[in-house]
Amino acid sequence: MAKSRPPKRILESYTIKGSDRVIKPGDCVLMRAYDASKPPYVARVEAIEAAGSRGTNVRVRVRWYYRPEESIGGRRPFHGSKEVFLSDHYDLQSADTIEGKCNVHSFRSYTKLDSVNAEDFFCRFEYKSATGSFVPDRIAVFCKCEMPYNPDDLMIQCEECSDWFHPACIGMTIKEAKKLEHFFCQTCTAENGKMAENSHEATAQSEEKPVESKRRRR
Ligand SMILES: [Zn+2]
Ligand SMILES: [Zn+2]
After folding, report:
1. CATH number at residue 58
2. d(Cα 83, Cα 68) in Å, to the nearest integer?
3. Which of 135, 170, 195 is the last residue of a domain?
4. Is 4 a member of any domain?
5. Full domain range(s) for residue 42
6. Residues with C-beta atoms within 5 A of ion ligand 1
7. Number of domains into which the chain is organized
8. What sign for the dihedral angle of Cα 170, 175, 178, 180?
9. CB of 184 within 8 A of CB of 160?
10. Residues 45, 22: contact at Cβ < 8 Å?
11. How many H helices and E strands in the chain?
12. pLDDT at 209
């Protein structure tokens, strides 16, 4: 005679083992990788359920975030070190593999963080795991190298055309770029003869990335 399986119970929260941190659906978590030498997986908890006769077997339904190196196309130069892609890959995992909570920020809020901690990530693409394609499939590009913005790299903004440039792509060191009071790109300087030359007044520039454009003084 067929035994009836114990019913699954939907839980509203789960407390990470050995800690007092509480996970709820919608939270992002780090989960231990099968290969202990690999960094933990990043996932979004969709649901928490308890199974087993005494309801002690807690499992989480997760939606995986892929790191660039886990995607079919691999890591590209414009991918940030803390970049992850929200995939269409769902899984059911034992809650025991949850190592901790993390934050997956939007690209915009990530670039505005005062400091990036170990648990901070950002996501600007959704990823289709079967085809390796991304949504959106187009992204704004900047600089002479026509690359999407990598928030790990310092860029400086032309005060005329508002395009952003990597110091290296315009023959400048990062140190020189940080000292710039004003910046006008080559094209804008050539197009407007009366434009002031890029000034190198040493000012206390904040370490913020990207260097925000300052109000132009003529
Ligand atoms: Zn560039
Ligand atoms: Zn310009």
Report:
1. 2.30.30.490
2. 7
3. 135
4. no
5. 9-135
6. 143, 145, 166, 169
7. 2
8. negative
9. yes
10. no
11. 3, 13
12. 42
User: Looking at residue 114, what is its pLDDT?
Assistant: 93
How far is CA 4 from its chain centroid?
Answer: 45
User: Ligand 2 centroid vs 170 CA: distance in angstroms?
Assistant: 12
> Looking at the structure, do residues 31 and 103 belong to the same domain, yes or no?
yes
Tell me the torsion sign for CA atoms 14, 20, 26, 32. Answer: negative
62 belongs to a structural domain? yes
In the reported structure, the alpha carbon of residue 183 is separated from the centroid of ligand 2 by a whole-number distance in angstroms of 8
The two structure tokens encoding residue 52? 């087993």
135 is written with which tokens?
């949504």
Read off the amino acid at residue 9: R
38: CB partners within 8 A, 6+ apart: none
Residues 82 and 153 in one domain: no
Q: How confident is the model at residue 201 (pLDDT cuts 50, 70, 90)?
A: very low
- Please indicate, yes or no, whether residues 120 and 150 belong to a single structural domain of this protein: no
Point out the ligand nearest to the CA of residue 183: 2
Domain end: 108, 135, 162, which one?
A: 135
How confident is the model at residue 198, as a pLDDT?
58
Distance 144 CA to ligand 1 centre (A): 5
